[in-house]
Specification:
Blueprint (H helix, E strand, L loop, with lengths): L2 H11 L5 H9 L24 H15 L4 H11 L2 E4 L2 H13 L9 E4 L6 H14 L11 H22 L7 H12 L5 E6 L9 H13 L14 E6 L1 H8 L19 H6 L5 E5 L12 H5 L18 E7 L3 H10 L5 E6 L20 H8 L5 E4 L28 E5 H5 L20 E6 L5 H6 L5 H10 L1 H21 L5 E6 L18 H9 L3 E6 L3
Parallel strand pairs: 1-2, 2-3, 3-4, 4-5, 5-6, 6-7, 7-8, 8-9, 9-10, 10-11, 11-12
Helix pairs in contact: 3-4, 5-6, 5-8, 8-9, 13-14, 18-19
């Protein structure tokens, strides 16, 4: 029996199953999008089983097939097909817009939209110009007289009127891809999460036109404010173009590598202001600059409604920020906290080895823009903090006095903390000077301690090449450090009550496993059995983990 016939037979078998059970089965076909920062998929048949896009594409194909079996199955599968939509090439962008123009009700099902093309990339703009002549005449607009219908009519009329010039010229119609995404978001009135791929280099213009278009929608609906789109968007993901990043980071790349590169969230202040319920911002590969200064603030002053007051913090409504592959230094996070006064969650995973200008500061005092100062003065609502760096040697004053986060002990709102030992003590020799319990927030529930010091950065780079002899030498050389670290943890386990009455979980993360592991002789957990028992007696779960063993 051919595969197509077998699938059709199996699908028809679903007709006899109660709808509640069919719904449970179809829920397993709801595609899960890859995490932020993934490149767009290659051809369908070239995807391997373990690739991020494999399951997503297969689930969508399964749902699409079910939509063609019967009216009953189509009614159950189609809402799931449009629940999570990913745009990964120019043709998909045009076809999805065409579908919404003809069947706007489909847009009511979408809760997640991701766009994996950089809208201002020359290749993207050129491809849109080349595709329009083939598809524009196939657009059929649904009947209606609403604001969106009239706006789309005007947009399509403009495209048809200027299509000849658009195909022949470059530069005059570069904003069309941004306009297409803007209209798509207007159709998706119940969408909650949006991922936009954004430029990481000045070679590609920022989305200023898109921000202006989105802001202008509010004026379009000024007589019907209750119908204004974007009212349900609570999560925005800004994905730095991963394909361009791959080229820049390639050691064999013959391209001109920019001195500073990365996504620039500060340029999207108008976008943040246009999404009234926006609470969560995720950014991959940001450039580390989180000041309020805009390269062209006059642009926002001329667009009514784009910012109520450019002097106000541009992240003022956002409560959760996650930075992936970031080059933000402690001083950069100082500005981030200044601009996000309602922040409850701050997570930052660092991009390694990023050049910063050195600071001429040889004393042990905190820099005026130190992270410690911002935590003390501008993080009153912070409940979760997880930040780390590969190496900030020479920039310790941007952390706090003597390179330490001294304000943590006074942060009563903090419940979850992941912090490097270096950020608590400054240097390995200081771990016995102050009891760990005195350095931590009083209402902490979960704590992850990262066993990491700036002096270890070269070891981490060399570690993949270590042989057995090198690992043994390192283990032997770390004897005194292990003794002091274990003494600190043991005392911490004894002191944890009553100072930290809410603490329930402690995890030690070992970045250099061979500090604690002697292959074939000493496992990772060997050193911590007593510490684990002491914590358990206090009602605290303790575990130790390592990146690589």
């Amino acid at each position: 029996m051919a595969d197509g016939d077998r699938r059709r037979r199996d699908a028809l078998g679903l007709e006899t199953i109660p709808p509640e059970l069919v719904a449970l089965i179809l829920d397993h076909l709801l595609p899960q999008p890859p995490e932020i920062g993934e490149t767009r998929p290659v051809g369908y048949k070239q995807l391997m089983v373990d690739e991020p896009w494999f399951d997503f594409t297969r689930c969508r194909r399964g749902l699409h097939s079910l939509c063609r079996v019967s009216r009953r199955l189509s009614g159950m599968a189609r809402p799931l097909l449009y629940r999570r939509v990913a745009i990964w090439d120019e043709k998909t962008l045009l076809l999805f817009f065409r579908t919404l123009c003809g069947k706007p009700d489909y847009g009511l099902w979408t809760r997640y939209l991701s766009c994996h093309i950089t809208l201002t990339d020359l290749a993207v703009m050129r491809e849109i110009r080349e595709l329009l002549p083939s598809y524009l005449d196939t657009f059929e607009l649904a009947q209606g007289d609403g604001i969106l219908t009239h706006a789309v009519q005007h947009f399509l009329l403009m495209l048809r009127q200027y299509l000849p010039q658009m195909v022949l010229s470059e530069g005059d119609f570069d904003d069309v891809p941004q306009g297409l995404v803007c209209f798509i978001l207007m159709f998706l009135i119940k969408v909650e999460t949006v991922l936009l791929q954004v430029p990481v280099s000045d070679d590609q213009p920022e989305y200023e036109a898109f921000c202006v278009q989105i802001a202008g929608v509010k004026n379009l609906y000024r007589d019907e404010p209750q119908a204004t789109p974007f009212q349900n968007i609570h999560t925005l993901l800004l994905q730095g173009d991963p394909e361009l990043l791959t080229q820049i980071e390639d050691e064999d790349c013959e391209c001109d590598t920019p001195e500073v590169w990365g996504a620039q969230p500060r340029r999207y202040a108008g976008l943040f202001a246009s999404f009234p319920k926006l609470a969560t911002l995720e950014v991959s590969s940001d450039d580390g600059v989180w000041t309020t200064e805009l390269d062209d603030p006059s642009l926002f002053n001329t667009i009514p409604g784009i910012l109520d007051d450019p002097e106000l913090p541009f992240l003022r409504g956002i409560r959760h920020i996650y930075l992936h592959n970031s080059v933000a230094y402690p001083g950069d996070l100082h500005h981030l906290l200044l601009n996000a006064p309602q922040l409850e969650t701050l997570y930052m995973a660092p991009r390694s080895d990023f050049p910063h200008e050195t600071i001429d500061d040889n004393n042990h005092n905190a820099h005026p823009e130190a992270l410690d100062i911002a935590l003390a003065n501008h993080a009153k609502h912070l409940r979760e903090l997880d930040v780390s760096w590969e190496d900030i040697t020479g920039f310790e004053s941007l952390v706090g006095p003597e390179g330490r986060l001294t304000s943590l002990a006074q942060m009563a709102s903090l419940r979850t903390l992941c912090v490097q030992m270096a950020l608590l003590y400054g240097r390995p020799s200081a771990v016995l000077e102050t009891p760990l319990v005195e350095l931590l927030p009083p209402n902490l529930v979960e704590l992850a301690l990262e066993d990491w010091w700036w002096s270890s950065v070269e070891l981490a780079d060399e570690m993949p090449e270590w042989g057995a002899e090198r690992k043994v030498r390192h283990y032997q050389a770390q004897h005194h450090y292990r003794v002091s670290a274990l003494r600190t943890l043991t005392q911490f386990a004894r002191d944890v009550r009553p100072r930290l009455q809410s603490l329930r979980k402690v995890v030690l993360l070992c970045r250099i496993p061979w500090t604690w592991v002697l292959e074939g002789a000493v496992p990772l957990e060997f050193h911590f059995e007593n510490v684990k028992s002491l914590f358990l007696a206090q009602g605290v779960q303790f575990s130790v983990k390592s990146d690589e063993v």
